[in-house]
């Protein structure tokens, strides 16, 4: 059983360490906050300890829908941090979007096994320079668990944290799945965009609540990147912390979500689901 935790209110804005966030990315984050404000109501709880700001930091979140990266950006901005993301290589190679994402300072990760080690090394190097935290999804994809609890995920985030001695703040999200449908595996024409557009327009009308909780940093100091099994142990702690923070966000939906997305498969399974 995952224990229930109490979520505190988000603090007032702080004076943050000066970091070199690209201007283009700062402008897009302002646009993002406006879009999220138009789409629904944002509730943020928890915080990032001040002593971790401006230093290497990983933000590890559950992945529940197509809109939750934008909700996460808005939540981070609300507490005064500018996250960068680790993105699939396909996004960074796309015309127009790819160059824009690169200009924002996002990091590339290719899922092909031959490139994973190199991507992790680049990410650790970027993190160790400090500045903006890097947001990551340990699951690697939107959860397909019927109850929308986190899926098993992979140990990449844990290996980055242990390999670079980088703190991990777990983030739990709920509600973004109500704003934009899961949609299609591929988009080949304008009709494939309809599920995304119609679901978003309905969200603008109904105004769902987007809940984001920043948990306490995961305790990983007793684990070592060179010790066999420690990456798995670190991954389990990170995923358990994300799940622990998710429980209070969905107390009235402990089994399956009330909102039904007819386009989302339910073929996944969560090993972290609370008893």
TrEMBL record:
Which GO biological-process labels does this protein carry? phosphatidic acid biosynthetic process
Composition skew (Basic and acidic residues), residue ranges: 253-263
Q: Does the keyword Glycoprotein apply?
A: no
The record's CDD domains line, in alphabetical order, gives: LPLAT_AGPAT-like
Stretch list, region Disordered: 253-275
Instruction: List UniProt keywords, sorted A-Z.
Output: Acyltransferase, Transferase
Q: Name one GO cellular component term.
A: plasma membrane
Q: Which InterPro entries match?
A: Plipid/glycerol_acylTrfase
Transferase keyword on record: yes
Domain named Phospholipid/glycerol acyltransferase is located at 57-176
Alphabetized Pfam families for the sequence: Acyltransferase
SMART domains given for it? PlsC
Task: Tell me the GO molecular function terms.
Answer: 1-acylglycerol-3-phosphate O-acyltransferase activity
Q: What is this protein called?
A: 1-acyl-sn-glycerol-3-phosphate acyltransferases
């Amino acid at each position: 059983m995952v224990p229930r935790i109490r979520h505190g209110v988000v603090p007032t804005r702080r004076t943050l360490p000066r970091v070199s966030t690209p201007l283009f990315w700062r402008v897009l984050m302002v646009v993002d906050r406006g879009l999220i404000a138009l789409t629904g109501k944002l509730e943020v709880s928890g915080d990032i300890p001040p002593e971790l700001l401006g230093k290497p930091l990983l933000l590890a979140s559950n992945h529940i829908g197509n809109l939750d990266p934008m909700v996460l950006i808005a939540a981070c901005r609300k507490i005064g941090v500018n996250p960068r993301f680790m993105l699939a290589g396909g996004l960074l190679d796309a015309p127009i979007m790819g160059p824009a994402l690169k200009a924002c300072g996002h990091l590339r990760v290719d899922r092909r096994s031959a490139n994973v080690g190199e991507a992790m090394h680049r990410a650790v190097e970027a993190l160790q320079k400090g500045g903006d935290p890097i947001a990551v999804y340990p699951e690697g994809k939107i959860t397909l668990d019927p109850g929308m609890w986190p899926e098993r995920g992979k140990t990449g985030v844990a290996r980055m944290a242990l390999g670079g001695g980088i703190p991990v703040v777990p983030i739990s999200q709920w509600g973004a799945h109500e704003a934009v449908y899961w949609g299609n595996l591929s988009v080949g024409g304008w009709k494939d965009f309809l599920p995304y557009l119609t679901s978003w327009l309905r969200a603008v009308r109904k105004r769902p609540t987007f809940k984001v909780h920043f948990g306490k940093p995961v305790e990983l100091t007793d684990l070592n990147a060179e010790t066999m099994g420690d990456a798995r142990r670190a991954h389990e702690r990170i995923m358990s912390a994300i799940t622990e923070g998710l429980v209070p966000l969905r107390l009235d939906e402990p089994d399956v979500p009330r909102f039904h997305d007819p386009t989302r498969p339910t073929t996944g399974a969560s090993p972290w689901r609370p008893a």
